[in-house]
Amino acid sequence: MRTELQTKEERKALFGLIDVIKENTQTLADMSRPMFNGVRYITDTELAKRLGIEKRTLANYRAKGYIGFYSVGGKILYAENEIEDLMRENYIPPLK
């Protein structure tokens, strides 16, 4: 009969799983955005990263009127649903 609740290896594996859970929880928290009147807003840094473009390119799109945005206290925000609509409107299907 074992006197320990867990062996050293079992404890190590358990703490490893706890670390993975913590990392995944932090990733989900970082990815989630609170809604404001049913709309999620993202920063220009987040949008540039998602689209794989530079923030300067987004600034050019804003200046040319290609993309709508909100400027609150010098912070640039984009409504996710408006970006999704813009992407759908500009979709070019592949040739068959």
Keywords:
54% helix; four-stranded antiparallel sheet; 16% strand; elongated; single chain; 4 strands; 96 residues; alpha+beta
How many E strands? 4
Give the strand line-up of the largest sheet: 1-2-4-3
Indicate the overall shape. elongated
Strand content: 15-25%
The residue-averaged pLDDT reads: 87
Helix and strand pattern: HEEHHEEH
Spatial gap, N to C terminus: 69 Å
Estimated structural class: alpha+beta
Helix fraction, binned, reads 40-55%
**What gyration radius follows from the Cα positions, in whole Å?**
22 Å
Q: Any low-confidence stretches, pLDDT <50, length ≥5?
A: none
Number of DSSP helical runs: 4
How is the main sheet built? 4 strands, antiparallel
Could you write a compact summary of the structure shown?
The protein has 96 residues and is of the alpha+beta class. The chain is built from four helices and four strands; from the N terminus they run H-E-E-H-H-E-E-H.
Can you offer a commentary on this structure?
The mean pLDDT is 87. Strand 3 and strand 4 form a beta hairpin. By secondary structure, the protein is α+β, with helices and mostly antiparallel strands. It is 54% helix and 16% strand.
Itemize the secondary structure elements and their pairings.
Layout: H1 8-31, E1 35-36, E2 39-43, H2 44-51, H3 55-64, E3 70-72, E4 75-79, H4 80-89
Antiparallel strand pairs: 1-2, 2-4, 3-4
